[in-house]
Every structure is written in C-alpha cells, then in structure tokens.
Amino acid sequence: MNIGVVGCGAISGIYIENLSRSKAVHIRATADLDPARARLAAERCSAQAMSVDALIDSPEIDLVLNLTTPNAHEQVARRAVEAGKHVYNEKPLCIEPKAARSLLALAERKGVRVGCAPDTVLGAGVQTCRQLVADGQIGQVVGGGAFMLCPGHESWHPNPAFYYKQGGGPALDMGPYYVTALVTILGPVTRVRSCATMTRRERTITSEPRRGERITVEVPTHCVGLLEFGSGACVSVTLSFDVHRSRWGDIEIWGTQGSLAVPDPNTFAGPVRLFRAGADDWEEMPLIDAPVHNARGLGVEDMALAIAEGKAHRASGTLALHVLEVLDALTRSGTVEL
Ligand SMILES: NC(=O)c1ccc[n+]([C@@H]2O[C@H](COP(=O)([O-])OP(=O)(O)OC[C@H]3O[C@@H](n4cnc5c(N)ncnc54)[C@H](O)[C@@H]3O)[C@@H](O)[C@H]2O)c1
After folding, report:
1. 19-43 per-position pLDDT tens digit
2. How many CB atoms lie within 10 A of CB 63?
3. Which of 28, 144, 152, 232 has the fewest Cβ atoms within 10 angstroms?
C-alpha cells in the first residue's frame, strides 16, 4: 500500500523511520504547508515532496497518513476520503465528535477506511493488561485511576501553541493514550461526569526557538472525571497541564481478586505489575509477544494489512470516535451519557 504523509513536523520523524522499514507499506510522497519540511521528510525516505492537493489527488497514493496539527485533522482527512483514499490520523481524530461522526459516515459512503492514533495500545504493555483482565486475573473489575499530570508542553516542544488551542489541552492531546488504553482493557464507557478548569489564560514558551513568546490558552488545562464503563467499573481520570510534579501516574485497575498497574500508555512497553489478593507484594508479569519499542506507525501497518485481507483494523476510526466522545465530555463540566 502506497502512503502519502501530510504534515512533516515533530512526530513525522518516528513514523517515517519505522514505516520506511515496513514491508506492508511504502511512503511515496510527503506534503506540508511548509514545503521545506516536506522536502526534508521526503529526503529521509526517498519519497517525492508535493503540495497537499497534488499528494491527495495522486493516483499513486492509497492511504493518507495525516500528521498535521489537530486543527487540520478533519479538513485533511475529509479531503483524502473525498478523493477515495484511506486515511490514518494522528490523535485526536477530529476536534469534535460531530465532525468525527460525519468523517466516518463519509468514509463509509466512499468505501474507504479511517484509522487513528494512538497505536501504543497495540504494544506489549497494554495488550498484556488486556489479556490479564480478560483472563480474570484480578477478578471482576471494580474501578481504577488514570492520571496524566504534567506542567504542559511549552518547555520542550519547538512550536507548542497548538497544545493550548481547540483540539489541544491535556484531554484531547494526552487523553487519547489513557482513554484508549482503558477502553482497550475494560470495554466501552457509558457515562462521564466531569469538572474542567482553565487555570491560566496565558502561558509563556520556555523552549527554543520561540522562548518568551506568549500563548493565549483556549481550552481547559485541568480535567477531572469519572468514567462509568458498560462492565460496571468506575474509573477516576485526571488529565492536567497544571501539575508541576506528582507521585501519581499512569493507570491502575482494581478488581475483586487483585490490582493491575498498567504501564505508561504513551509507550508500547511494560512493566506490567499484578497484585494478587493475599500476596505480600506486586509481581512483574511477563509481556505478551508484541512490540515494546517506539513502534509508532504500527496502527498504519495493521490497517494496510487488514485492508488487504478484508479484516477489521485495530486502531480504528470507530474506536477513536468513542474515545473522542469521552474526552470531549471530560472538557465540559457536567454529566454526559454516551
Ligand atoms: N510531537 C509529539 O511528540 C507528538 C507525539 C504524539 C502525537 N503527536 C500528534 O501529532 C500531530 C502533529 O504534532 P507535531 O508535534 O508533529 O506538530 P508540529 O507542529 O511539529 O507539525 C505539524 C506539521 O503539520 C503541518 N500542517 C499543519 N496544518 C497543515 C495542513 N492543513 N496541511 C499540511 N500540513 C499542515 C505544519 O506545517 C507542521 O509542519 C498532532 O496531532 C499531535 O497531537 C505529536
């Protein structure tokens, strides 16, 4: 399957590195609003740099890998789908669930697939947890906690403004890793209760090259919620760009027979720790046979192979829409039934 990459910024490097080695897909073209970035990316994978329109309309391209900033995810994806191409978006699928639903409906009419990051949940860490829960190793799941607590991305990302605009914030930026992992392990969410706040209206960039520039914040930066799952489990979630440091982190799941410590869902690896009721301590569990390295692009390969074999792909638009509905609810204080 021939791929065209649209959006050649920070995250494109690891996708290009991994997918250049893939036997399932070939990167044929790159495009960016900034042609110099597209050229640089093209050089790294012996592809051709093009304009966005030329790439999407090219008969050579089967699948558009959309690595643009969140504000462009919907527009680029719709354009690709309208041109009859499969599309795989970086997260979030779109800024709003309504737009994501409309994108999936369009793709269905056009007979093309939509995939979406994160594919970290296909890695050994989360897949081992999914298997342990499915095997009843912690009994019936009662609840758990998921915490993504950091001071924000303006200290390291070269161009961090988008993290504070619509489509950014801790919920839509980091939340996809946490909620996709929870849904992968526990199944769908049926109700979200939440409280969301915007702590500061302005942030100052401390990374280079934009050090000292101010960002006007447009989204909540501290989102706290309770997720009720169809299984009956109730999980508390805090996603925040307002915490300097915390000893809480990642995800724990608590069951009638024990507890499970889920590794950082922004990685593919472990460790996975299980505490069995009555034991003295946690035990580190062996990981199932799945990637442990930074395998970003795995979801794209999985989608390409699934299309070829007529099977469902795993990092799907449908899953990403459900996750987006949950995250959208977390950015609005109140209760949302899904
Ligand atoms: N940076 C990370 O560590 C990281 C990690 C995981 C996921 N992501 C996700 O990847 C996506 C991109 O993030 P990034 O950090 O690479 O951002 P970035 O700003 O470094 O790069 C985005 C690129 O997209 C281009 N672009 C924007 N709108 C476009 C359009 N309409 N058409 C063509 N090109 C367009 C920009 O010119 C830019 O080069 C985001 O959705 C982000 O959430 C980023």
Report:
1. 999 999 999 999 999 999 999 999 9
2. 24
3. 232
